[in-house]
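>> received
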Amino acid sequence: MPMHDLSLGGLWQRALNCAPWVMQAVAIISFGLALCSRPVVLALLVVMLGVHTFTAAWLCWFLWPHRVVSCGGSGHTARSHESEDAAPGVSIIKPLSGTNDTLLENLESCFELAYPRFELLFCVHGPDDEAVPVVQQLMARHPKVDAQLLFGNADELEGASPKVRNVAKGYEHAKYDVIWSMDAKIRTCAADAHAMVAKLLQHPSVGLVHQLPWARAGVDTSGTLERMFFAGSHARSYCLINGIGLPCTNGMSIMCKRSSWNAIGGCKALATTVAEDSLIGILMQSKGYSCAMAAVPCVQNPPPVPIRSIIERRARWYQLRVFEMDGGRWVAPFELWLEHAALLCLVAAYLRSISATLACAALCATIDTWYARRIDVATRARLGASKLGIFTILTYPALWLLNLLLPFAVMCKGLSSATIVWNCNGTLKPMHPRPYSEKPVETGVCNVLHWAGQRQCCQAPKA
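>> returned
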């Protein structure tokens, strides 16, 4: 948009571009004023407690029919009444970039899947990638597993996220009608495969299945913070949005049918955005498909990282919501104020009592612990040593408080720039997001406007 464009449309577009910063200022001022009004404080408390109750109910609903399968078992993990001929084949696509201390363990979990028919497609940008020797080692260790190592940058998808460009080769070479894209940091098991296939095939209208993200158990600081985050604010927002019927999908683990994937335009349909996982759900729903959540969460098994890396990754997610999604610029700035930190501040201001604040903190910590326990039961995967030693007992409250304060650092980092920096195998790639409504999908798929859960279709522009 030209800087000298003073038309009504040009001014409105400038206002939209400034919305993330403006709405964040409005959120801060609004909640600051709320602290001075006892009736408003009470109303907000009721709303937040209602949200906690609603999301807890949806969490139980999504994870209730979990399959009683033990991860890491043998052929016993497969359903006794499911024959090899009846089980659909699954093409598992693993986009890789670089290596770390847990990559070998995570990739080997795919080779050891107790599922009747599957193929593994490992996608890297080039043969010099550090992940290549790891894959080759596993392929030599498991020669009977159908596995391929694919290279390619998908130059025709210029502008897409590095992940989309990486997995494009996998979709081209997939030989089965069920396609499962899974991040390198996911440690999977038979429970994941069976639960996702069962959910995908339960009704013809289901076009995509995703999983609730979770994190491995451990005693390191980063692992504890990640579990607190994914059992707290992330699980609540994820279950809340999916519970009310809006498309909310994450790209850590996604399974779809070839027919539904082709219907939305494949990888080319995602070349217009760096938030491809969110756009997949929106496009699926726009084509008449539903997005279902599997009853088994996906377990992340990343290596320990510094807190700075955690802030940078969450800041990138925050940037995607406020700069890439049409509705995110209006909603995301208010998210962190509706979490535990806001609840504690509001209770302290309303009751003017330290004991009441401590009691509320204990209640919030209990809720988070319940979420973590409920998700752990559904995963049936105990990764790492979850030891309750004296060090853990002393540091857990401090880490829980730190987890409440991290969103403020994430907000500041995310709003410091509208440019998203993507770390691809040590190479920093700046991405400049644009809202969905400004980017037509040139694949015969209708342009989708994601604002307040509404969709609008228009003719795709001619080439």
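>> The radius of gyration is 22 Å.
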